[in-house]
Amino acid sequence: MKILIINAGSSSLKYQLIDMDHESIIAKGLVERIGIEGGKLTHKYGDKTYTVTPDAIKDHTEAMNLVLEALLSKEHGVISSISEIGAVGHRVLHGGEKFTASCIIDQACMDAIEENIPLGPLHNPANLMGIRACQAVMPDTPMVAVFDTAFHQTMPRTSYLYGVPYEYYEKYHIRRYGFHGTSHRFVSARALEVLGLKDKPSKIVICHLGNGSSLSACVDGKCFDTSMGLTPLEGVLMGTRSGDLDPAVVECIANNEHLTPSETLNVLNKKSGLLGLSGVSSDMRDVRSAAAEGNAMAKVTLDIWAYRIRKYIGAYAAAMGGLDAIIFTAGIGENDGEGRADVLKGLEFLGVKLDAEKNAKVRGVEAEISAPDSKVKVWVIPTNEELAIARDTLMLTSK
Length: 399
Ligand code: AMP
Description:
By secondary structure, the chain is α/β, with parallel strands linked by helices. It has helices spanning about 60-70, 105-115, 125-135, 155-160, 165-170, 180-195, 250-255, 260-270, 275-280, 285-290, 295-320, 330-335, 335-345, 355-360, 385-395, and strands at about 1-10, 15-20, 25-30, 40-45, 50, 85-90, 105, 145, 205-210, 215-220, 220-225, 325-330, 365-370, 375-380. Adenosine monophosphate binds near residues 332 and 336.
């Protein structure tokens, strides 16, 4: 079966067509600047790229029509009829407490995604636009919603409640939800396989380190705690997000810079992290090259980045009462050997022993990077959120 994966943002729409017989990508692409001047579709198939720059792409339905035209095109297409697409899997940001797993999209599911808009005010409306656009152009194709928050719904109350008046949880659903759940689920399942710990007791920390970063503590394959919170702002230092800070910092910045609370949150979400501290870039490669060229602030930023992740690993080992493995994934986690080594520095007391030579060589591939006698195993396991969404979509639509 061929499955189309859709990840809709407010002005963009990413897609991948996956052949589930071989779990291979047939085509993928991106529609940018939907509803803004200068809309563009970039369609990749095999080793070829094809771009379309129409006058305007009015809305997500027009964007979906462009995607289907590209997939069906005589010159650049990869299928000959829409009916070849057996199902569509949609990435949805916030499932709140309603969704502990992926689900078939019906009216009740759409209503629940809508109900969760207050928790995901930027993403859930965009995700709904993507779903509605697909329904408009492919009304007979079954669709599945896969939630970024679902994997973390197994967290106990001790992990997810904040120390604020309990009525705010009851009235406004303020709690830790966690994100990147599809990645954490995919990587933790694979980790149990490679570690031979499936159906055995296990305590694992997954470090999803990309532009957005989050850690999860997984006990027996289930999420026990995670570093992102009500929103993706909490946790470790990220590309442009500050991660953890004293909430009083918000008022202090707002007063001094004459900003509203939401303008201040914008600074914490978009102008902080690696970018804000280093003043160089939100991209780890740029910060690392600046540090190598002697930029002192870039060097300090790298130290803070690693220190904060290390603190979380230590905290999660204590919270779980042990640690069998640490797994690195996502852009930085999979590719940046120096970063991984920095994070693990000082964790020898927990039983972590890195194979430095192997670690330096591993890039974007699955590999064990701990020494054979390391008590805590350390692995790089590449994430594949699209494949995880496609597998859920196949499973739910083949029932
Ligand atoms: P992601 O959000 O998972 O796509 O990850 C993006 C981040 O991965 C960016 O900060 C990139 O700089 C970083 N990244 C990708 N390749 C490398 C590399 N070879 N070394 C260091 N960082 C990398």
